[in-house]
């Protein structure tokens, strides 16, 4: 009998890909749309700048806390069911966040962070399960879909707030996309169910094998290499996405121009994320791909510091670096996991530490800029992170898999 999860043709394959891409498209708009209307949120709620900063960091902190816990429910209930639950909670969280009471803003944001964390962890697992021979390609396309929806949400948030009468309906609108994604995922799940990953399928005439024993990846050197690569590239991305316009403003760049530069940064990331899959191919050795997405960040930061008149070139290079790096990171998680369950655990570990570092990056950059009075220190910080990522690349790209010790 054919397994619907790996059938390469027919309605199963089409629906599986559509459902996966719908999930990807749902994971970022609830986050990226907030920045464009943050001033409006402060005006209507009376929140201070520090409180708004905490509001922006809350989802990232949720990622860090929830990501390492996902493997338990995924093993118990199944990956597909948990993704569906996450989509339902995400849809509800977006709606709750836009309600008038002040507690709803925080409760809804927390719900968004928890549900997106689950999706972040499980998407690489689903790709490994359903298309194990096309991990880099599908990771690249999936990330392009995710980043495209993120850029669209960021670009439309402010205009929608003017048309719809405020930030609440402008942000609540994205609950519709998540609801559609949940419906498509439920259809795929119940029409073409996949076997639970925790119990391998029995072989005819033999007893079913025992489930894989629970094991920890936290003592695996390879798991830490992948985790550090994930964390360092996340730190660069979230630091630049938050502070690059401020850096440019300190150099006299008009806000509108800085906004277009940031849009170009995101578009370059989408294109680079697709292009890096050609470098990755189907090889186990991924050091060239790791270096190809790490070294340009160092070059871009040096260029912004020493040749600012070419700033657009360096910003596009930095965007390409971050866009390619997230694809490589997610592909490494799927490639280095070794088994489905270990991939879930590695994904949780890598994204927990990664987003914890990412939450600290913008805070550290802001503190440096305020303490020194020179926003170029942000570029120095990101350049140092890029150097560390380049160093880690030499180990993370090697083809060894994680071999966690027994707990």
Automatic annotation (TrEMBL):
Q: Where are the transmembrane segments?
A: 12-31, 51-70, 82-99, 105-127, 139-164, 170-187, 226-246, 258-277, 289-307, 313-333, 353-372, 378-397
GO terms assigned for molecular function: transmembrane transporter activity
What InterPro entries is this protein classified in?
A: MFS, MFS_Cyanate_Porter, MFS_trans_sf
| Record keywords, A-Z | Membrane, Transmembrane, Transmembrane helix
Q: Which Pfam families match?
A: MFS_1 (PF07690)
What name does the UniProt record give this protein? MFS transporter
Could you read off the lineage of the organism from its UniProt record? Answer: Bacteria, Bacillati, Actinomycetota, Actinomycetes, Streptosporangiales
């Amino acid at each position: 009998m054919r397994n619907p999860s790996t059938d390469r043709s027919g309605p199963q394959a089409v629906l599986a890909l559509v459902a996966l891409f719908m999930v990807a498209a749902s994971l970022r708009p609830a986050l990226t749309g907030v920045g464009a209307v943050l001033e409006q949120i402060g005006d209507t709620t009376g929140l201070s700048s520090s409180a708004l900063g905490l509001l922006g960091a809350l989802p990232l902190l949720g990622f860090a806390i929830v990501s390492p816990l996902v493997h338990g429910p995924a093993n118990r209930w199944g990956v597909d069911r948990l993704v569906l639950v996450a989509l339902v909670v995400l849809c509800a969280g977006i709606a709750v966040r836009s309600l008038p009471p002040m507690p709803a803003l925080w409760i809804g944001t927390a719900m968004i962070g928890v549900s997106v964390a689950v999706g972040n962890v499980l998407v690489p697992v689903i790709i490994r399960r359903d298309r194990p021979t096309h991990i880099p390609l599908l990771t690249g396309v999936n990330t392009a879909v995710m980043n495209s929806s993120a850029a669209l949400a960021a670009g439309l948030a402010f205009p929608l707030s003017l048309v719809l009468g405020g930030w609440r309906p402008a942000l609540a609108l994205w609950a519709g996309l998540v609801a559609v994604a949940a419906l498509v995922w439920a259809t795929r799940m119940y029409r073409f169910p996949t076997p639970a990953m925790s119990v391998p399928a029995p072989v005819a005439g033999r007893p079913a094998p025992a489930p894989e024993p629970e094991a920890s990846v936290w003592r695996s050197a390879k798991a830490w290499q992948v985790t550090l690569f994930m964390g360092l590239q996340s730190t660069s991305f979230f630091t630049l996405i938050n502070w690059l316009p401020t850096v440019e403003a300190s150099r006299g760049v008009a806000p509108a121009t800085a906004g277009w530069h940031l849009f170009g940064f995101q578009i370059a990331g989408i294109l680079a994320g697709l292009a890096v899959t050609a470098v990755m191919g189907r090889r186990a050795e991924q050091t060239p791909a790791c270096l190809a997405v790490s070294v340009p960040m160092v070059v871009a930061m040096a260029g912004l510091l020493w040749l600012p008149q070419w700033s657009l070139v360096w910003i596009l290079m930095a965007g390409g670096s971050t866009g390619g790096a997230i694809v490589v990171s997610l592909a490494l998680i799927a490639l280095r996991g070794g088994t489905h369950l270990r991939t879930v655990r590695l994904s949780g570990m890598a994204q927990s530490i990664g987003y914890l570092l990412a939450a600290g990056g913008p805070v550290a950059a802001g503190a440096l800029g305020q303490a020194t009075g020179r926003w170029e220190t942000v570029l120095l910080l990101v350049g140092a992170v890029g150097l560390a990522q380049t160093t880690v690349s030499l180990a993370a790209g090697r083809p060894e898999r994680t071999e966690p010790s027994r707990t």
